[in-house]
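Lab notebook: predicted structure, single chain.

Context: the supervisor wants predicted structures on file for every construct in the current expression panel, including those that have not yet been purified. This is the next one on the list. No modifications to the sequence; it matches the entry in the shared construct table.
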Amino acid sequence: MLVAGGVYLASSVAIAAWLMPTGREAPPVSFAPPRDRPVWGKETPAHLRTLALRQARVWMPANPAAVDFEANPPDSNGLLSQPIVRCRYLDGPVRGTTPKFDCVLPDGEVVKVKYGRNAEIHAELAATRLLAALGFGADRTYLVPRLRCYGCVRTPFYAAQVFDYVHAREAVNRSVPEDSYTDFEWVAVERRLDGEEIEVAGEDGWAWYELDPIDPARGASRAERDALRLAAMLLAHWDNKAANQRLLCLSPGSPGAACTQPFAYAHDLGATFGPKKVDFEQWRGTPVWADASQCLLSMRQFPYNGGTFPDTRVSEAGRQLLVRQLSALTERHLVALFTGARFPEFNGRGSEEGDASAWARALLEKAHQIASAGPCAE
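Prediction complete. Output recorded below exactly as produced.
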């Protein structure tokens, strides 16, 4: 055991030396302590979550034609619009399979950073911008040319995995000097949609089959829910486990009372435009409808046999709602969408999958599939 422990220690020290940050400077700004994520009701009774979901909205009126798809969302405090965005590394559990880490901005806000050659950067940028433009909920995702992370090793995600394996993460984190940093280029920074998350122990987010019981007299109409389902199919949002959707309370009330403005939206959209994440041929070749004459949607052809997304017949009102929103977008808008999300840079210019115009035409073809179906049954 002593020999094995010594080997592990030596290995972790060697790896740590290779991963050490690339630069040193005293941070020109001070960092406030990380702010806790707002949660509605720290111990929300299960029946209040059920009530909130029954009254949840999923869509708000929006004008897609007015959106600048190449621009980042509005940046209220300006911290994500600096020539160099600065943050401090926040250690935490390793989640998912692609490079990411949490980072604390100078005012204490905690954001998620996705870095490296990572298809999720591009998928999430395009998917969140498109859904928000159409009127659905989406986290605000910013494309940042250069982010300086103080306390970051060269590849925080994989380093955390390795150091967890050799039980050395705490020791390595302590060895990283406070004035050291690593610069990351062309990262995606995610800010969560404003609101307090509704959570119950063992129930994080919501599953797509939970949209069915929403009461249209108090929450989203059938048309709005069906339009959201269609939008999810348009994007090929197959990684739709409950944790990848969020239920928010937009207007917190008295503790222990029901939320008066619950809102449900798709959160983690990194596995879209595939199913193999930003895969042009697969995405273009996957039809929106399982049966256009019956207005039937199915995700059974995707990984996890559709996940939490059950086979669904879309209403005519739902189809028409999404058709109206999509019809406001021209090829110019969609070229800007895929250009702004750097699809050409990810796939390589000079090829069809690296052509933003080809992606735009594929999306317009999918919009045409939606417009030419039906009429659907009510």
